[in-house]
Amino acid sequence: MLRHLIASTLFACLLVCQLSAPATAETKNKPPNIVFIFADDQCFDTIAALGNEEVETPNLDRLAKRGTTFTHAYNMGSWSGAVCVASRMMLNSGRFIWDAESRYREADKERQAGRWWGPQMQAAGYKTYMTGKWHCRAKADQSFDVVQDVRGGMPQQTPTGYNRPLVDPKTGEVTDPWSPSDPKFGGFWAGGTHWSEVVANHSESFLKDASQIDQPFFMYLAFNAPHDPRQSPAEYVNKYPLKNVRMPKNFLPVYPYAEQMASGKGLRDEKLAPFPRTEVAVKTNRQEYFAIITHMDAMIGRILDAVEATGKADNTWIFFTADHGLACGQHGLMGKQNLYDHSVRVPLMVVGPGVPAEKQIDAPVYLQDIMPTTLQLAGAEKPEHVQFTSLLPMIDGQASPYEAIYGAYLDKQRSIRTDRYKLILYPAAKVYRLYDLQQDPLERFDLSSDSDQQGNIKQLFADLQKLQKDLHDKVDLGSLSDYQPGAISDQ
């Protein structure tokens, strides 16, 4: 039986006192302040301190050095092409994917009943604040005490931002009508101030006010960055000359099962670059991806400085994560509607009193575990409907409650990931793929045809079906004999 089914028992462990660091007499008995910083589309491997030599993230590096990083944090997937929606519904409701989906249209009733994250923090005595991307059906302005500039799923798109850049097959000339730094295209520039800067501006203002009150505060700071259209000031784009941008080692011109897994030419995210993928298109998209991450990082630095300026930093917990990752040229894909680690795995860092500095925990968690973690910090009892698990036991040295990580996209993809292997199934294509993640972390070499792996594949398939039942997944995968091994390794 997978241990996530006893998550409620683990949650009840009284670990807050064990996690407490030496504190001043003024703060040791006060509920901690909580700052939740949320990126959009940020892959787990886009932070310099965690091993990416290409990208500049000095402020996210600050968090990594000050606190504990969960290196294997995941999103379960999505019931729609807008993966952001499913991720945020799970986060704010505390429910696993299919239970969150079943209540999707009743989200505002759930909020009114006090079951959503913001109202639960209010009930625990917190002054709550939200700014930025929401993308949930429940009303944001009624979910927090203070709400400013609620954004939609993504900045307004323009046709110019798709199918680019193009290369003339005869002359090799590159044409690209788009500029990530030109305000005329709107998007992140709509309203006159870049949306990441707006989040920082509002956060600073709230923190200045919060410094004058005794009530603990909970901040939900949701960037739209680095979601497309990936726009940032020219000085940030110039940090990444195209000649210096590396091609992903797991690059493919075309992913062989893209159409059958519903991540093909008709998907909006995949239309950002031309088909088949070209080196210049992938490098350009990655250049702009890194640039908007570095720009967002600068805004996060402003928020961290503002927390310090309150005089309450010693009693403040900071969480940073993203709603999901992004392929951005890996495996021939541009979007996040797939079950490879680049698209389901995210950064997750925790800073707070007593949290070990520069520590990494590689056991698996879900990003949505942050929600019950904050409830435990607030002294609130875990509600029965919350299925995710507090991270505090793991910070204190206990094992993960999840023996395996589940993944799903529509009815077209399913996966199970252990500490070593990942099995991916494409029901429409009747194909399965197997990767040894210890030997092949970039998921390049499909082992599904390996005769030595057949027993392993059978066990993983059975474990996946058990997870489906536990998570109320109604898709019938049939039997393993209905599937064929993947025909192509991603080399």
What can you tell me about this protein's structure?
Its EC number is 3.1.6.1. It is a single chain. This protein is α/β, with parallel strands linked by helices. The protein has 2 domains: about 30-405, 3-Layer(aba) Sandwich (Alkaline Phosphatase, subunit A); about 415-485, Arylsulfatase, C-terminal domain. The protein has helices spanning about 5-10, 15-20, 60-65, 85-95, 95-100, 105-110, 115-125, 195-210, 235, 280-310, 340-345, 370-375, 390-395, 455-470; strands spanning about 35-40, 70, 75, 75-80, 125-135, 145-150, 165, 175, 215-220, 315-320, 345, 350, 360, 365, 405-410, 415, 420-425, 430-435, 485. Helix 8 (about 195-210) runs parallel beside helix 10 (about 280-310). It is globular. Mean pLDDT is about 95; it is low at about 1-25.
Largest sheet: 8 strands, mixed
> What is the CATH superfamily label of the largest domain?
Alkaline Phosphatase, subunit A
CATH topology of the largest domain: Alkaline Phosphatase, subunit A
Strand content: 15-25%
First CA to last CA: what distance?
Answer: 36 Å
Task: List the main descriptive attributes of the protein structure presented here.
19 strands, alpha/beta, Alkaline Phosphatase, subunit A, eight-stranded mixed beta sheet, 14 helices, 16% strand, Arylsulfatase, C-terminal domain, globular, single chain, six-stranded mixed beta sheet
Task: Please give a quick description of this structure.
Residues 153-178 are annotated as: Disordered. Helices cover 27% and strands 16% of the residues.
